[in-house]
Amino acid sequence: EALTGRGVLRRAMAALGAYRCIECHGEAAELYRDYQRGVLRISICKSCQKPVDKYIEYDPVIILINAILCKTQAYRHILFNTKINIHGKLCIFCLLCEAYLRWLQLQDSSQNIDPDDLIRYAKEWDFYRMFGIASLEQTSFLLGIFITLWWMRPEMLKTKSDFILLLKALLLSSYGKLLLIPAVIWEHDYTPLCLAFIKVFVLISNSQAIRVTLNLNRMLPWLAVIFGLILENGVVCFFQKMGWGV
After folding, report:
1. Where are the domains of the chain?
2. pLDDT at 170 over 60
3. Sign of the four-CA dihedral 141, 138, 69, 214
4. Is the pTM of this model over 0.70?
5. Is Transmembrane a UniProt keyword of this protein (predicted)?
């Protein structure tokens, strides 16, 4: 195994302490041992004496369901023991969903149905404006979280890798925003309530991501999320006072 690319990668990951036990958050040298001929043995954590990561044998659908249920073990598996690099694309897509929702509401409130090219261009510009506002609000939310954590626990974010890992966790845990589009497509009388539930779910996921990434108790992540929400709402109020519909 040492001669294979996979073996070299596993050894490098172990040297960096990249693997984590999904039960106790302890560092692990490897997730499993390959005895060839399809025989694999899941590693046992030296701290808690439980399997380091049972999810390596699970179907991705089961892992997704556990992540939706905000299970700590599923979050640790995704954040520490897998190499998922879709957080940037996911962030852009979520912002597009949010911008589309706001743009659609803006068009519904407009009574102008003139098909003139100038009007169509103005509507297209409105979408770009909504995307920019959504991006600024998301940035404010994340900035509020990082300020709170840095103020309360500065040792938690002392390196660039700590910052990047937490940012990745927050972006991945915002996947609930993808539900905005179905909520708008299947519009009914309860759409505002659905949007409120989606917002709450995203905040719960963000809190769980902070808790898992930094191995904290429940209170500090929620404080960070609440402060981030306050800063985000402050940006919303600012745009409203400026007369920019959000």
Report:
1. 9-80, 84-242
2. yes
3. negative
4. yes
5. yes
